[in-house]
Structure formats: structure tokens, C-alpha cells
Amino acid sequence: MRKLMIVPSVGCCDLFHIEEQVKLINEKSDFLHMDIKDGVYVPSYGIGPDYLDYLNKHIKNLKPMDAHLMVKHPQQYLETFAKAGAAYITPHTDCIEDGAQLGKSIVILGGGTIGLMVLQACKSLGATDITVVDIMQNRLDLALKLGVNLIDTAPGYNFGNSEKILGKALEGMNREDVVIITKCGVTWDQEMKGDLFNKVNGIQLYKNLNSASIKREIEESLKRMGTDYDDVYMTHWQSIEGSEYYVPIQKTMEVLNDLKAQGKIKAIGAANVDIKQIEEYLKWGELDIVQAKYSILDRGIEDEIIPCCRENGVTIQAYSPLEMGLLSGTMPRDYKPVGAQIPKKWFQPENMQKAMDVMDRWKPLCEKYNCTIANLALAWILAQGDFINLLSGSTTVDQIAENVKSAELELEASDVAMMREMVEAIDKD
């Protein structure tokens, strides 16, 4: 027999005597329903996070609080109410205004409070291809349990530890419910030396796509992840023509096609490729996905790569869409580039100022769409077509929330064209 639970709404209390009344109903209830209203999604107003925080701190043995978010853009408030003491957060998924639709692919950067709630909202709105990227196992565990169906990783991410974390998260899961992307071509195996790549923590990495190395890499990846097959196997970095370690793409595809025939991989992808390399991959087999650098400032893939991928049904995952943070709109005019930014085109002093001038001209659009500069830059990429996905880095939950908001924006075609015209103008200067 199911237990009958009593869940009174605190929104019905007299707010002048809320502490006294909550103490009374707290004794007789199983948990407390907190009606959060913003006066926009619903015409009336309700209590906010300050009330939850007060009750959580001043009432002993307080029952779990359910924050019912009857507000626009609920993903912006998830972290706030979680910190205020809400044990449950219930948003209205229709408030996420067209961010997820049937057939759309969604990338959620971070599996924290915001990321996982947005995941649930996207599922409710019909999105079927959802990727959550995270390096923390507890977040990844929960993301998988909530229905994440695509995980992107690579052996080169912390020397295989990323794959090991994924393997632990997969324990107890139905493997067929999860789509995994991992990669080959970057190795620290001293027996499989290739072209020098970079050093991490004093350990030399190599670019190597010969058959023996790929075969070894896939077996080690499958072992670390605790699975007998990988859904998408992607070449991480390409061989250098003229190098003693150069491997023709035909040879790489031969081993990838063989792995596919064996059932060890289901599909093939390639990262950091030019048009010649993409055409070569397509010549020797099926290519399902390409990872490429793409931003409104760096549109180099538009001339050849995008038309080729669109024509051949190849999905593009765009990385560095905020141009190493420049398009975040948060850098001051006197910003001094650091590290990898220093040699880049758009971090040269004159170019950086031109880019900032353009972003200043975008501010009316920010007001129009109630968004940030970063939102506009990301939404512009999504407006280029359903065949493009976004990979945008985040270091805080606030950044995750901002990035997710970009998927909700539906830019008018005229605004998309105007933004393009502005950046094309500074390219010609």
C-alpha cells in the first residue's frame, strides 16, 4: 500500500507570521511545497530564496523543501534555490522556450545542479541526443541515471583517467542506453612513438595513427571503460605528411573499418582535419562526425568543410566558439593575452580592439533578446544549421547556466545576417 504524503503549500501562509505557521505545518507534513512565482510566467508573485534560507536556518527539524519554480528561464535559478536549502526543485519545462526540440542535439557542459535539471527539461521537450560533459564521477553517475545518452572522452584526457571515471559511472547501467565517443591518435606509450605532440606533467605525448597503435589504444580504452565496444571512435589529431611517422588516411581507415566490422566500434569520427583529409576519409569509408574550430570570428570552415559535411551527412562539433574567451564580452579593453592566446590573430592588439568594437555594437541585440554577448556568439553558431553542435568550455556553474541559455535563443534571420556583416567588415579592414 502506498503511503499518503501531506505536502502543504507554504505560499498559502501569512508571510507576516511565516515562521510560526511553518513550525505548525512542519510538525504535520512530510515535506513543504514552496511556490516560487516571478509575476511573469504567472501573474502573481511568491516567496523567494531568502525565505527558504531563513526557514532552513531557523526552524529545527525542518522537513525537506520543494521549490516549485513558476518562473521564466528556471535554469537561471536552480543553483540559487539549491544553496538556499531546497531539497527538491520542480521547474516548468515549457519555460525553457524552444531550447530543445525533437531531433535536436544538446550538449550540456557540466553535470552539476543546473546541468542535470536542464537535462531533464530537454528530455521533456523532446530532445533525444543529449551530451553531458563532466570530469567528476559523482556528477557523471547522476547524469547517466537521469538519461544522458552521449559521453565524449579520450585517452589523452588525464592519461586515461577520464575513461576510467566513465567506466565506473557505467557500472550497473544498461550499456546500450549510452553512446560513447572516445579517441585515438594521442598516446604516451613509449613503445608506440610518433610525432612529438606536447608534454603534460613531464610526460611526452605523441601523435600516432599507425595500425598497431590504434589497435592497442582501442583495447586499452575498452578495458578502462569496462565495455566491449565504442559507439564513435574518433582520430584525435592527424598524421603529419612528410614525417617519418606519417600514416596515410587510407591505412588509418583500413584499421578503423576493420574494428567496425569486428563490432568494437560503431561509427567513425575525425577531429582537427582539413578539407583534403575529410575528403580522404570519405573516400575510404563512412565518416559520421567532425570536430572543428568555429566561431563568428573564425569562419574558416565555411568555405569548404561545412558544405562538404552538409552534403555528406557529417555532423560538425564546433569547438572554441567563444574564441578563447574573447567573445565572452567580459575582457576589459586593456586585457593582456596570456599563454596560448598570445600568438592568436584576434588577440593581436589592433584586432582585439576591433572585435571589442563589434561586441559593443551587439549590445542592442543583448537587450532585445535579454542575453549576454556570449549567448549571442553561441546562438549565432547554432543558427547556422541543425548539423552543428557546440563544445564550449565552462569552469563555473554560472558559466554553464549562461551557455545553456544560448540554446534557448532563436535569433531572427536578419540579426544573424547583421552579426555576420559586422565581423566580415572588420576582416576586410
Topology:
Layout: H1 18-28, E1 32-37, H2 49-58, E2 65-70, H3 78-83, E3 88-91, E4 105-109, H4 113-124, E5 129-133, H5 137-145, E6 150-152, H6 161-170, E7 179-184, E8 186-187, E9 195-200, E10 203-207, H7 211-225, E11 230-235, H8 249-261, E12 265-271, H9 275-283, E13 289-293, H10 305-311, E14 315-319, H11 349-361, H12 363-369, H13 373-382, E15 388-391, H14 397-406, H15 413-428
Parallel strand pairs: 1-2, 2-3, 4-5, 6-7, 7-11, 11-12, 12-13, 13-14, 14-15
Antiparallel strand pairs: 8-10, 9-10
Helix pairs in contact: 4-14, 5-6, 13-14
Give an overview of the whole structure.
The chain is α/β, with parallel strands linked by helices. Among the domains are: 10-88, no CATH class; 318-429, NADP-dependent oxidoreductase domain (TIM Barrel, Alpha-Beta Barrel). It is 37% helix and 17% strand. It is built from 15 helices and 15 strands. The protein has helices spanning 18-28, 49-58, 78-83, 113-124, 137-145, 161-170, 211-225, 249-261, 275-283, 305-311, 349-361, 363-369, 373-382, 397-406, 413-428; strands at residues 32-37, 65-70, 88-91, 105-109, 129-133, 150-152, 179-184, 186-187, 195-200, 203-207, 230-235, 265-271, 289-293, 315-319, 388-391. A seven-stranded parallel beta sheet has the order 6-7-11-12-13-14-15, with helices on one face. A three-stranded parallel beta sheet has the order 1-2-3. A three-stranded antiparallel beta sheet has the order 8-10-9, with no helix packed on it. A hairpin with a 2-residue loop joins strand 9 and strand 10. Helix 4 (113-124) runs parallel beside helix 14 (397-406). The protein is globular and about 80 Å long. It starts with 17 loop residues before the first helix and ends with a helix. Residues 97-114 have low confidence and may be disordered.
